[in-house]
Amino acid sequence: MGNVIEIRHLTKYYGRFFRQKKVPAVSDLTLDIPEGTVFGFLGPNGAGKTTTIRLLMDLIKPTDGEALVLGYPPDNIEIKRQIGFLPDAPAFSSYLSANEFLNICAKLLGIPSTTRKSRIAEVLEIVKMTKHAKSKLGGFSRGMVQRIGIAQAILNRPKLLILDEPLVGLDPHGRQELKEIILNQKADGTNVFFCSHILSDVEKICDHLGILADGRLLCTGTLEELLSGTGTRLHINPGHDEIAKMLLSDANETIKLSNGAWELTFSNQQEDGKRLAEIKKQYGEAVMLTRVRENLEDFFFRKIAEATQSKNVNQSGLNPDDVQREA
Fold first, then answer.
1. What is the mean pLDDT of residues 127-148?
2. Which CATH architecture has domain 3-224?
3. Does residue 65 contact residue 28 with C-beta atoms inside 8 Å?
4. Where along the chain do the CATH 3.30.70.240 domains lie?
5. Which H/E stretch holds residue 127?
6. What is the pLDDT of residues 227-285, one digit of tens each?
7. Angle, in degrees to the nearest 10, between helices 98-108 and 142-154
8. What is this structure's pTM?
9. Which of 9, 36, 41, 319 could cysteine-pair with 65, CB 3.0–4.6 Å?
10. Which residues are 292's β-sheet partners?
């Protein structure tokens, strides 16, 4: 399996005035995104996510470094036909209807006239906008414009779909539908790269992710690799309170469910693991063990906090080890 995107030491500096110190929007970014994935690109506002996307789309040029998209430089014209793109703030001609706008997009993408009409109808159905096909874009809500933006992004059945904040402006129902669209695109062989601030949704649909802060990549990998186990949960079926009573004092968290079952959470300590394994062996189907994994939101804020602390230490000139000891 190859990579759909390969980034090597990509750097982009911005500075308004000739003598002004230039600020890195993206700094020495190296990243591989494998085929067959939904990749979530995360980071706080100003982290450099949109700048990275604009570099990948050849909307701006890098200060240094390089990137390959589908095996070619971003300025390759033929490769652009294989990419679907939704920018962070789509703005379309207000006087065009949805049909008219998508027809223009289809012509630009080189979709044959014999299949153009049917494909437009198909994508409008996918984004649940069929009944608004003849309505003017100027009268659409933000969420409706977002749906049309997604429709144009998948119009050419792209090999790579790049979405910058695609969930913005959508209500919970619309977000659920978009998640289904993304997963269906993956099932059809499309690779998806997208940014989002809605971490709970990212966790549900992404299999790989990367976190960016101050233009630098903090981490990247699969969800399984990044979200570490924080403990073990023991589920005790109803009618076995005696098992719970033996373990209540050692559990980090205890919950008695309305049906009489218990859920006890334990740390990752080796002695806890051994004892729970013995309980499982002794009581069999009366209990069930599951790993407790850190959720994406907790992981994200932990990595951002670590990066902020490291940045502050570096700027102060202190030894990080001394700061750790003082803390």
1. 93
2. 3-Layer(aba) Sandwich (3.40)
3. yes
4. 229-293
5. none
6. 877 778 889 999 999 999 888 888 888 999 999 999 998 877 766 778 888 888 999 99
7. 30
8. 0.79
9. 9
10. 231
Q: Of the candidates 5, 29, 47, which has an alpha carbon nearest to the alpha carbon of residue 217?
A: 29
Which of 141, 152, 140 has the alpha carbon at shortest distance from 104?
152
**Contact present, 69 and 56 (Cβ < 8 Å):** yes
CB within 8 A of 137, min separation 6: which ones?
92, 93, 94, 95, 96, 97, 98, 101, 145, 148
| Helix (H/G/I), strand (E/B), else coil: 52 | helix
Question: What is the identity of the amino acid at 170?
Answer: L
Place of tokens 């993408």: 109
For the 229-293 domain, the top CATH level (class) is alpha beta
Buried-state track 19-32, b at ≥16 Cβ within 10 A, e below 16: eeeeebbbbebebe
- Residue at 50: amino acid letter: T
Ranges for all domains in the chain classified under CATH 3.40.50.300:
3-224
Q: How far is CA 122 from the centre of its chain?
A: 26
> For residue 121, what are the β-bridge partners?
none
